[in-house]
Amino acid sequence: MKRIGIADTTFARVDMYKYAKRRLEETGTYFVVERYTVPGVKDLPVACKILLDQRGCDMAIALGMPGPKDIDKVCAHEASTGLIQVQLQTCKHIIEVFVHEDEAEDDKELAWLARRRVEEHAENAYNLLFHPEKLSKMAGTGARQGFEDKGSAEGLTSAGSQGRH
Amino acid sequence: MKRIGIADTTFARVDMYKYAKRRLEETGTYFVVERYTVPGVKDLPVACKILLDQRGCDMAIALGMPGPKDIDKVCAHEASTGLIQVQLQTCKHIIEVFVHEDEAEDDKELAWLARRRVEEHAENAYNLLFHPEKLSKMAGTGARQGFEDKGSAEGLTSAGSQGRH
Amino acid sequence: MKRIGIADTTFARVDMYKYAKRRLEETGTYFVVERYTVPGVKDLPVACKILLDQRGCDMAIALGMPGPKDIDKVCAHEASTGLIQVQLQTCKHIIEVFVHEDEAEDDKELAWLARRRVEEHAENAYNLLFHPEKLSKMAGTGARQGFEDKGSAEGLTSAGSQGRH
Amino acid sequence: MKRIGIADTTFARVDMYKYAKRRLEETGTYFVVERYTVPGVKDLPVACKILLDQRGCDMAIALGMPGPKDIDKVCAHEASTGLIQVQLQTCKHIIEVFVHEDEAEDDKELAWLARRRVEEHAENAYNLLFHPEKLSKMAGTGARQGFEDKGSAEGLTSAGSQGRH
Amino acid sequence: MKRIGIADTTFARVDMYKYAKRRLEETGTYFVVERYTVPGVKDLPVACKILLDQRGCDMAIALGMPGPKDIDKVCAHEASTGLIQVQLQTCKHIIEVFVHEDEAEDDKELAWLARRRVEEHAENAYNLLFHPEKLSKMAGTGARQGFEDKGSAEGLTSAGSQGRH
């Protein structure tokens, strides 16, 4: 039985946690989910550290939605830097799923984008933990999470990418 | 009995400490406050480290007011990076409450903004320490501290956000 | 027998792994390759850490293809910073091979550039591990990986650079 | 008896050390000063680390004067980031006193600014070490070092700020 | 007998190592030089770490020549950040000698600039290791490496700077 930590924020404008948990459960079994909610993205690194170090999680998913202003971009950068440090300290993966508010044109697209990116990254997280060979099959295929895949520049496809968009 | 550290600066143009302490005390009990004042935001990381590591605090609140110039933005970024490092070293939360001088149009708005952001983050800090489940109820609701909440992009509300603005 | 770790991504639009492995094998012997595929460049640092710390690799090659947007540039910077940290934690080299999507004008050039940069860096990796003196012979000669070498500003050539472009 | 380390540079265009030492001695007693001179600001972090870790200093003052070019700004940022890391590693304060060459219009103002900022920060350093309560009295009063204080946005003054400009 | 590590790159367009070693030997004795060549500046941090930690060097000199593009500036920043981290981990100095390609107008000036900056920093390195008091005599005099010294803003000169340009 594995333990997957999910850290999310009150700042985000979409309930990303719900989509992450549901997709994980649709994708496979043999894991439990542990949730940790913080105010904003800069609080995510220590939340993930606590999940991985003190609550026995084998991996974490960090869900955040940085705002559109310059200062928000800086916050996201600080958060990402911290999330990488936590991974190096714990030797465990944290799948960062950030959706920038200004990636979408309106609330409807934002909700759509957030859901889809969360779901596709939930699959990545599951595979990293249970089926890492599936990721190798998709290597170099230009996979994207949220918007459409960009595809291979060499015209390649891969078995692993069949079910992807 | 918990111990909440509050680090503040002589550089800030509003007595943020006063509002933080008062709101914490209005929100709940079973904690004491330990204060540490430094010159500017770049001194906050080690102040918080000392509060968390040497003075037995369970969490810290870092209060700062970066100036409007480019160099001030860089200082704030360095301070934030340091505050995240301290959290990862101590496995404890630091709630960073920075109010940028140029977020407000005049001194009056600056004082108003600083007070309100401090107070709302004091509630976040209290909840993280005593009622983390309250934050999960507010997850994904687009909560903001200071200016108005932005709200959910999915039209959701949450029980936990009822008392918020 | 040495162990060379290669970390690659599903985000990349070229199968960089294939070219790295093949060129390593064309260059020499006495090593085995261990592969680790992750979603994107920000996942490479912990992948390399795991390769170097937990899977006994003596060196790693980190293959990535950052996108053309500002946010992609920031991601690449965060990844590079993390890759340097891993090297300092393990005292082992990670040869970072990043090809930015906007370095090439179209898919064909992108595929060409990625392949050539990967291959030339695979030689660097091999030499660092088995023949470090070859690198010293090429020092200061303005070697580049992918596009043409820039050459010495002093009009020097070196024995070591003979086989290079 | 306390030990205050002062690190300075040959790059700076003002003898900042002289002003720091003199003002410390005018402000109080029960300390000795240990000096460490390096070429530029990027050498200050390890100099301070050596002062704090190997030469028994209880605190350090880092004196630097970054140049006016973009690359100088980046160097200053790298130095500041390093100085914060040293503080977190040693749990001791480093008061960073950087005067950017382009803050002043000519050499005369530069010398004046550097001297005044150094002197006011020397007082901060002394107080942090011997009278931290004095800093708390000045908290939120908009204190500045070098140019004029900006003052409180709430119209407050404080006993502690009486002797300031 | 001291041990000075010199790390250089194949990316650089001038054989900086040669000038560093020669000037060190012209400046004094009682040291040996240990060389380590890597592909580019981002490989310098771990090279220096290996020199200082595993090959018994007392100090290192990191020689690099970042290119003129934005991405090259970012690489140089990442390298510098890493070099500072290594210094803090080892408590030893690394004298970073970076010459940016776009500091010079043509190859001839680039070669001249690189040589002179390397030589002047080789003297700094020697003095830090053997005669730190010489650096203190030059403190605050506006010393530069490569282009002309900027001089003191206070009209001061120092005994230590007599032999400088």
Structural overview:
Five copies of one chain form a homopentamer. Chain A is α/β, with parallel strands linked by helices and 165 residues long. The first copy, chain A, has helices spanning 16-27, 44-53, 70-90, 107-130, 132-138, and strands at 2-9, 31-38, 59-64, 94-98. Chain A has a single domain (2-130), classed as Lumazine/riboflavin synthase (Rossmann fold, 3-Layer(aba) Sandwich), CATH 3.40.50. In chain A, strands 2-1-3-4 form a four-stranded parallel β-sheet, with helices on both faces. In chain A, helix 1 links the parallel strand 1 and strand 2. Residues 159-165 of chain A have low confidence and may be disordered. At the C-E interface, helix 3, strand 4, helix 4 and helix 5 of C face helix 1, strand 2, helix 2, helix 3 and helix 4 of E.
